[in-house]
Amino acid sequence: MTGLYCEAAWQLAALPPGARVLDVATGAGALLSIALQDGADAIGIDFSPGMVRVAQERTAAIRTGERALVMDGQALDFVEASFDAAFSMFGVFMFPDPIAGFAEIARVLRPGGLAVVAVWENAGGAGPAILFQEAARRLFPDRPVPTPMARLFNSTSLLDQAFRQVGLEPQAVHSVERAWPAPPVEWFRDNAKLAFGWSPLWRDLDEDRRAAFADEAAALALNLTPEGIRSTALIGMARKSR
Ligand SMILES: C[S@@+](CC[C@H](N)C(=O)[O-])C[C@H]1O[C@@H](n2cnc3c(N)ncnc32)[C@H](O)[C@@H]1O
After folding, report:
1. What percentage of the chain has pLDDT greater than the value 90?
2. Cα(13)–Cα(180) distance, rounded to whole angstroms?
3. Is the Cα torsion angle 203, 209, 215, 221 positive or negative in sign?
4. At the top level of CATH, which class does the domain 2-126+148-180+230-240 belong to?
5. Is 44's C-beta closer than 6 angstroms to any atom of ligand 1?
6. Do 162 and 102 form a contact (C-beta atoms < 8 A)?
7. What mean pLDDT do residues 119-135 have?
8. Which residue ranges make up each domain of the chain?
């Protein structure tokens, strides 16, 4: 689902062939796969062994070797200056200590290396999450709308500030809007817990109010066009000074 945004980030980075690339919080390896397909010497890390298994299976079809490793993005097991570029697509903002994630990216980049960090512009995230957030806003206007991110970084100034905090020089923040394929209306009714069960708001709701919440999200989904749910990523780029 993040592939369209990873494709955009990869094109924007415009790295030379054979670049040494790290994908921090690789998940199912969306960016990692694109990088390997394009000839980069890429490796991905994620702290979820299940995600790493999926990413490794996916990359095995593209290139040999162990390309996905279980690792904490807040304490990377790589020496300084190991990579020409380090990406984190919708990753570091979920870490308990996101700035530690930014700092580790800065540490493992070589002088002149490129950092690419993608976040969602919307505080609720992207795709179906936007509809669930809107449903929460409508049904429970007095409650703060929950966000799954530890910190948002969802503006140029917030991203630039984080880069500067870890000694990187901000280069640009690109706004990338894509249509996220929408699941059918019934999916919203059946999967409210999957999509929102992590939130304090969900935990406070009784069964009736959870059902009403799922119905509200499904009602919003009725208005979606076949194109899907337009969702915007901010792709921040920064360089390590030489
Ligand atoms: C929203 S997913 C994004 C995955 C992928 N980068 C993509 O664009 O599809 C966030 C990922 O961050 C990983 N993650 C969360 N905290 C982490 C940490 N401290 N270290 C490494 N990975 C982490 C999760 O396991 C998950 O795979």
Report:
1. 91
2. 22
3. negative
4. alpha beta
5. no
6. yes
7. 93
8. 2-126+148-180+230-240
